[in-house]
Amino acid sequence: MRVKVLSRNPDDYVRETKQDLQRVPRNYDPSLHPFEVPREYMRALNATKLERVFAKPFLASLDGHRDGVNCMAKHPQSLSTVLSGACDGEVRIWNLTKRECIRTLQAHEGFVRGICARFCGTSFFTVGDDKTVKHWKIDGPGYGEEEEPMHTILGKTVYTGIDHHWKEAVFATCGHQVDIWDEQRTSPICSLTWGVDSINSVKFNPIETYLLGSCASDRNIVLYDMRQSTPLKKVILDMRTNTLCWNPMEAFIFTSANEDHNLYTFDMRFLESPVMVHMDHVSAVLDVDYSPTGKEFVSASFDKSIRIFPVDKGHSREVYHTKRMQHVITVKWTSDSKYILCGSDEMNIRLWKANASEKLGVLAPREKAAMNYSQKLKEKFHHHPQIKRIARHRHLPKAIYSQAKEQRIMREARRRKELNRRKHSKPGSLPFVPEKKKHIVAVVK
Amino acid sequence: MFSLAALSVLKAQTPLEQEIFSLLHKTKQPVTDPLLTPLEEASLRAMSLEEAQLRRAELQKARALQSYYEAKARREKKIKSKKYHRVLQKGRSRKALKEFEVLKKLDPEAALTKLEEMERPRIEERMSLKHQNKGKWARSRAIMAKYNLEARRAMQEQLAKNKELTQKVRVEPESDEEIDMTGEGLLPDSVNQVQPSMEGANPWMLGKPSSEAKDSGTQEDPKDTRESAAPEDAGNEEEVVSEEEILLQDFEQRRCARQQQAGSPERHSEWARPDVEIRNSQPRESRLGIWSPGQVEPAVQEPEGPLLSEQLGRLQTLEEMDALGQEEGAEEQAQPWPTRALQGPEEEGSFGEERPARKQKKMINLQAVLAEESHVDALGADLCLWQEEKEEDEDQRLMIKEAFAGDDVVADFLQEKHKAEQAGKPEAVDLVLPGWGEWGGTGLRPSARKRKRPCSLICLIVSQVPHQVNELPFPFDHCQQFERSVRAPVGPTWNTQRGFQKLTAPRILTQPGHIIQPISAEEASPRSAVPIRWNLAGFSCSHPLGGRVA
């Protein structure tokens, strides 16, 4: 009798070892997989919707300060530590994983104006309204010891900011003028000054480490070279800059947070016109910090929100706000580029996710692949109107929304007026001033 | 009498016929073969069903217009506010002067006569000295003037008016002088007269609704009279009926004119087309004029604009997002007003009529009435009629079928529907460019092989029109490029596993829990040994400690 059976060779469908993947026979013939574009489009649409559903960026609020948080500093070696100084002179060290305060010390009488950590991570500096610079150890006092700074420097004028060099044992303070100090000395090694007004903040360049930038009250940003002991050049803007931050991946780019609700990204070699003007805030921008990848930065504003901007775009890609968060004074982007910390007027430090709908923690490889795929699809179809509309939608509190609307009206009115003026005057009598150059008054060498 | 005569003429030939005729005679129905009276016959021949519907719609419109204008006139008559009248007079005088200017250029003789007319109020004032403060009121005020500042001022105003009125007429368009409230002024009296009607004896059909609405004085008007408009409208309907006959004649003429034109429906489009509406051509040109130097202006930072659309509402569930999608249709018509404000002054001229129309929507839904497409209604009604007939007697059905044997109503309706659909679809932009291996230049047809298909219409099902891209996004130059970028699938169903991984690899890879150090100066310098990869934005990405940036 003849029996017909199907027979297959197991070599064709069984994997060779347990370490190998399963063999999945696939036929990539496109006629078997029709409607590629509509199917992918629907997947992109669903991915966009889910992204909005899962966009819950707020993680935690660190409670403990008894006055508004004035300044913050990141620990250079530890991701889970952050230091903050309050308006009553208190400095607290927080553990982010446990979300609690691990150490408190009364650093100054009056505001803690600036705080910065040394690059080695063992100590930190604070300056306050009591005209002192204090040098503290990160580890708390041992048993029986008192809470005391390692070193105190008494100055003659109030210091408003401090920043430490990225490589050497040098730090700079600003107040009446910019002073560069050696850690061992009690008097500055050099004082740099240009102009008569006080200086708000000073920052060292992380890449070209001999460069400094400072923001003064007379609306200018001054750049210094530490090696020459002279100011390099300055740019005068329309309104005062509150702080500036250097891009950790680009040697000469820095972003300044200005009182006229904008942020300006400059290339220090060409200060005549900023690389980009970032507009979206409706009130003065108080602080700015770069992501360690150098692609984005976060800004904190007097309108009670923080915004994340891409470096190459003029508008923000994300806005975070909470009913309980009042004027945000200081903001930091953690060194692993995943979290954002902001300290605000109402004594809280809040921890947010940098990507609002990201899933934290360890992801299985399939999960990661699926997330990469949805991300790629969202990028591919992001021009399509339905996807664009859902992806762009953000909620704003009423106050900010109405402010933004009002400012839009004002801007349009000004623009219309200019157009009319140009239309009714001799051609060429009104020159076209590009938006970027409008806010710069002068550059002085 | 008619039926008797008919009976006497006809002879019932069969018993059936006899029965029927007797029945008809009993009920006094016409007996002869055409079952309609001559009058009915005539009227039936005169208009087909469609025309009847058309006429009915026209009558409706006419009635609505009439009632609207009546209500408006009544409202305006009631206004006592001095400011309103002052402003109105100013507007009228300005218009009159402008017309006079135009008339001067066109017809100098008529201009001369008009000038004489304009002289009339001046002559009257000089003759009567009405504002010379010699009347009873003026005398009483003069006594008070010694003690009362207000009285003094009033007298001075009167004297000033006198001076103005006795001035010779200057033919400048900007005469912003105060004009007498009572209507005498630099105006010819003809402005106040009813303009002779051009078409028929219908005084209500004068003027244009837009020009009326544009009057500067009407700002107070809607506020004052919005409340009184509603009860007034109800009362107007009955009074208008008597004037229907006049309107009917009017519409007869109009219909004849319309039938000569092509049969496409008049769309009440929001956007003025220069070939259809000539009066909007000038503001449209000025709009173009404004924008051409504006486009040269390098004030635009980036072509994208804001990256976020910030709203007051939250999107938390999938249902809310679906609802967002459906709102888009409504939103697109009312553009977001910042962009609207961009075109603000240019829009004002051509679309000024839209705003007063919107303002007056509360009072009467005139625009809605005017915008009705009557012939579609006719066909729709016809279909209903058709369905109703089915339920009734067979006889009547047959009768109507005979009557409208010439019209294929259903087919007509489908045709119209198809036309409407076609018009609604986006036009396929024919951007055919001869590509590699083909001749280019004017007058050459690219090969049939390369015929272009519309942007992303083949990729997405045509019914999903709202899902398609409206305009070519920024980095792409041609439709084809964009289409190609969208067409290539990314998923694991269509690509090998390795290919899929490479396609979906993220641009920035960071290790969780690792600190990303800033780049070092050696790496950042141009002569560094470490290879630095540049991404599209021109920013370098290289390998810092602990994190890998791809």
Automatic annotation (TrEMBL), chain A:
Entries under InterPro entries matching the protein: Sof1, WD40/YVTN_repeat-like_dom_sf, WD40_repeat_CS, WD40_repeat_dom_sf, WD40_rpt, WD_repeat_DCAF13/WDSOF1
Keywords of the record: Nucleus, Repeat, Ribonucleoprotein, Ribosome biogenesis, rRNA processing, Ubl conjugation pathway, WD repeat
Biological processes, Gene Ontology terms: female gamete generation; maturation of SSU-rRNA from tricistronic rRNA transcript (SSU-rRNA, 5.8S rRNA, LSU-rRNA); protein ubiquitination
GO terms, molecular function: ubiquitin-like ligase-substrate adaptor activity
Cellular component aspect of the GO annotation: Cul4-RING E3 ubiquitin ligase complex; small-subunit processome
Subcellular location: Nucleus, Nucleolus
Pathway annotation from the record: Protein modification; protein ubiquitination
All copies of domain Sof1-like protein, residue ranges: 354-440
Main location: nucleus
UniProt repeat feature WD, residue ranges: 62-104, 278-319, 321-362
Family: Belongs to the WD repeat DCAF13/WDSOF1 family.
Protein name: DDB1- and CUL4-associated factor 13
TrEMBL record, chain B:
Localization per Swiss-Prot or TrEMBL: Nucleus, Nucleolus
Chain residue ranges for the region called Disordered: 164-359
Keyword field contains Disulfide bond: no
Coiled coil: none
GO biological process, alphabetically ordered: rRNA processing
Signal peptide: none
InterPro entries according to UniProt: SSU_processome_Utp14
Alphabetical list of Pfam families matching this protein: Utp14
Keywords of this entry: Nucleus, Phosphoprotein
A GO CC term assigned to this protein in UniProt: small-subunit processome
Biased composition (Basic and acidic residues): 164-173, 211-229, 265-287
Comp. bias (Acidic residues): 234-247
Statement: the UniProt record of this protein carries the keyword Nucleus: yes
Family the entry assigns: Belongs to the UTP14 family.
Database matches in PANTHER family: U3 SMALL NUCLEOLAR RNA-ASSOCIATED PROTEIN 14 (PTHR14150), U3 SMALL NUCLEOLAR RNA-ASSOCIATED PROTEIN 14 HOMOLOG A (PTHR14150:SF12)
The protein's name: U3 small nucleolar RNA-associated protein 14 homolog A
Species of origin: Pelusios castaneus (West African mud turtle)
